[in-house]
Specification:
The complex is a heterodimer of chains A (499) and B (185). Chain A is α+β, with helices and mostly antiparallel strands and 499 residues long. Chain A has helices at 54-57, 66-69, 78-92, 100-132, 143-149, 151-172, 192-222, 224-229, 296-299, 306-312, 319-330, 342-362, 413-416, 418-433, 440-452, and strands at residues 15-19, 26-27, 30-35, 41-47, 181-182, 185-186, 236-241, 253-257, 263-268, 277-280, 289-292, 302-303, 381-388, 391-399, 405-411, 456-457, 470-474, 480-486, 492-494. A 5-stranded parallel β-sheet of chain B has the order 2-1-3-5-7, with helices on both faces. The chains are: A alpha+beta (499), B alpha/beta (185). The complex binds iron/sulfur cluster.
Chain lengths: 499, 185
């Protein structure tokens, strides 16, 4: 089966418009739109066009390399992969409970990541659409334009991100691709002077995060009808929650609710995620399409990420963010809670929660403790799940008796949102593009719908229109380097290098 | 600060990520508040930070990531054609990096395992739509295909290394990474 606007009946009669690459998102992707002669939209697809094969080439590597290697899949939230892999390997080592120092250092690292990633997305990437307008001048619609016209806002964004990156550096050893978390614990805690340095700035970060929630709220108030309806659709949802139902981005059980809000599963042990989640493949994207098994591939898609977490948790365990959540849920009779652009608001509430959590952790003496590692009874399989900035992230490994990885499966946050993003762009295309002359500003509306999800398409890259069926790469010195063909069945063949 | 001296024409800079993880771009942003100052001196052309989709004439091009599909090659050539100075940023652009770990495997086998035989798939099939660029058999470093003027090693190169490179260039010096900035982690 295919979703509305997924597949046109007679594509050869249609003309094609491509947004390629999608910009101001992390990672790579493109959108293709097929229109008939009256510019009515017949097909819209978000393509993920790069293939990595991590699951395969990690096989045969010693397991302790995994937390460091796997973050190279994504430099935007490397900490999430670092920690999800570490959690999976904790399970494999039979470590059920980390030492208090290890758990708190990892949490600090993770909330630092949430803070920096959410700040980056909102200020550096998405804010130009919101502050300048959806169809505004393409030349100014970027962070340089924000710095030029709203320097105070831009500066807060830059410094919020910096603070989050510093938390990461001090806990992981390095801002991008650190090494702090290891199977069974961490390899460093915080030094007293590092703690003091972070404590000096954290109150300012909490205050600025609060300002950011106020800013997105104000934008909603000013543009209520448009923001609420933009790319709106109904969707099932999934996230981790703590045992008491509160938000916890580091650990918990899986909660899923259907379109009508009915609970599908709750506090589900993620170590058996495959009992509830299946994956579908479509010919036009390297990104898979996950679904709830109980509903099947056609009806079982769902969304993850800030909007899901803020609306599905029972509460947020820090006071300012909890108050912000209550206001968000009540705003406009609760309609924002289902709006695609509601992601931005929810993201800022989470940024506030991250700042408050970091503040609390910095006051906890365990973070300067020395007891870093725990041990347990070895297992053959490990599953680690974490709520990454963009949503639920699943890592799953099996190792053999020589400590080598024999199987790996990853379901990354953006993959869960694959169908949701496709639906959102189809809604926007129907409403804004149908029958109109396609302009750059209108096409930006499509990208705004994608940006709301803050996708990390880092397992993907740019593509150009009609691909040749054959490609040969000739080096700078004129010698052939690589070549491949695709036959009429779409199978890929290697061509031996020509002598 | 002598910002009052009216600056000469801004240096036009394009950046892109090919088969990279965006970590090198993150490291660029890790120059933190120096970014605010930098934008008095440079302007961005095509980059993940702007909505310019094709590279125009530029003074400087930063490339993150190696080549893993036909489209990467196309974008790299576009950058080379338009950028006076082209820089390979990070381990992936210079050596292929993590994505090149697949080079000792057969691409078909990898695709089959991920899309066909993996447990948990409702129905499998290797994606093959013409909109998807053709993957290359091997991941290649970018200097194998076009001439590269500078190499900034590291995974990622640190923000200070990127900053030193840029400030040297802006001051008209030959960029050099001194002690502590040159690393290969
Ligand atoms: S060099 Fe490292 S940080 Fe840069 S793109 Fe490659 S993996 Fe990412």
């Amino acid at each position: 089966m295919s979703f509305e606007l997924e597949t046109a009946i007679a594509p050869e009669k249609l003309h094609r418009v491509a947004i390629d690459p999608i910009s101001r998102v992390e990672g790579h992707g493109k959108v293709t739109i097929l229109l008939d002669d009256d510019n009515h939209v017949q097909q819209v697809r978000l393509h993920i066009v790069e293939f990595r094969g991590f699951e395969k080439f990690i096989q045969g590597r010693p397991y302790w390399e995994v937390p460091v290697m796997v973050q190279r899949l994504c430099g935007i939230c490397p900490v999430s992969h670092h920690l999800a892999a570490s959690k999976a390997l904790d399970m494999m080592l039979g470590v059920k409970q980390l030492t208090p120092t290890a758990e708190k250092i990892r949490r600090l690292m993770h909330y630092g990541q949430i803070l920096q990633s959410h700040a980056l997305h909102f200020f550096h990437l998405a804010s130009p659409d919101l502050l300048f307008g959806f169809g505004s001048d393409v030349a100014a619609r970027n962070i340089a334009g924000i710095i030029a016209t709203h320097p105070a806002i831009a500066k807060k964004g830059v410094l919020l991100r910096k603070f989050g990156q510093e938390v990461i550096r001090m806990t992981a050893g390095k801002r991008v691709h650190g090494t702090g978390s290891i199977p069974g614990g961490v390899n460093k805690s915080l030094a007293p002077d590092e703690r003091a340095e972070l404590l000096k700035d954290i109150y300012q970060m909490v205050a600025w995060s609060r300002d950011a929630v106020g800013m997105i709220r104000q934008l909603f108030e000013q543009n209520l009808a448009e923001y609420n309806e933009f790319g709106r659709f109904r969707s099932a949802a999934m996230c981790l929650v703590r045992a008491d139902g509160a938000m916890d981005l580091y650990h918990g059980g899986l909660r899923a609710r259907g379109i009508e809000g009915k609970t599908l599963f709750d506090h589900f042990d993620y170590a058996r995620y495959w009992d509830v989640i299946g994956e579908d493949v479509k010919s036009w994207s390297y990104m898979k399409f996950p679904f709830f098994k109980s509903l099947g591939p056609d009806d079982g898609s769902y969304r993850v990420g800030p909007l899901t977490r803020v609306t599905q948790c029972d509460s947020i365990p820090t006071p300012l963010a909890e108050k912000a959540r209550e206001e968000f849920m009540a705003f406009d009779g609760g309609r924002v809670a289902g709006a695609t652009l509601g992601y931005h608001w929810a993201r800022m509430i989470e940024m506030l929660h991250a700042a408050e959590t970091i503040k609390d952790l910095l006051h906890d003496d365990d973070i300067i403790g020395n007891d870093l590692m725990a041990t347990g009874q070895r297992q053959q399989r490990g599953v680690g799940v974490i709520e990454a900035p963009r949503g639920t992230l699943i890592h799953h490994y099996r190792i053999d008796e020589n400590d080598l990885v024999i199987r790996a499966n990853l379901i990354v946050s953006t993959t869960h949102n694959n169908q949701a993003m496709n639906t959102a762009v189809r809604e926007v295309a129907k409403k804004y593009l149908n029958g109109r002359e396609i302009t750059e500003g209108l096409l930006n509306h499509i990208e705004i719908a994608i940006r709301a999800f803050d996708p990390c398409l880092s397992c993907a890259t740019h593509a150009l229109g009609q691909m040749p069926l054959e490609v040969a790469i000739v080096g700078a010195d004129g010698t052939a380097i690589d070549a491949a063909t695709r036959d009429q069945h779409g199978l890929i063949h290697e061509i031996r290098e020509t002598p | 600060m002598n910002a009052s001296l009216s600056p000469p024409k801004k240096l036009r800079v394009a950046t892109t990520s090919l088969a990279g993880c965006f970590g090198c771009h993150m490291s660029f942003l890790d120059i933190d508040e120096r970014l605010l100052k930098l934008l008095d001196l440079i302007e961005f052309d095509r980059s993940p930070l702007t909505d310019i989709k094709h590279c125009g004439p530029c003074d400087l091009g930063f490339i993150e990531g190696g080549l893993c599909n036909a489209e990467n090659v196309h974008v790299l050539r576009e950058f080379r054609a338009h950028c006076k100075i082209l820089v390979a940023v990070g381990a992936c652009a210079i050596n292929g990096g993590l994505p090149a770990q697949r080079n000792h495997l057969d691409l078909r086998d990898v695709l089959e395992e991920v899309y066909q035989t993996e447990a948990g798939l409702s129905h499998g099939g290797i994606p093959n739509d013409p909109e998807l660029p053709l993957p290359l058999n091997k991941v290649h470093p970018i200097h194998e295909v076009v001439k590269i003027d500078y190499f900034l090693p590291g995974c990622p190169p640190s923000a200070d290394a990127i900053w030193k490179f840029l400030t040297d260039l802006l001051a008209g010096r030959t960029p050099t990474l001194g002690h502590g900035l040159l690393h290969y982690d």
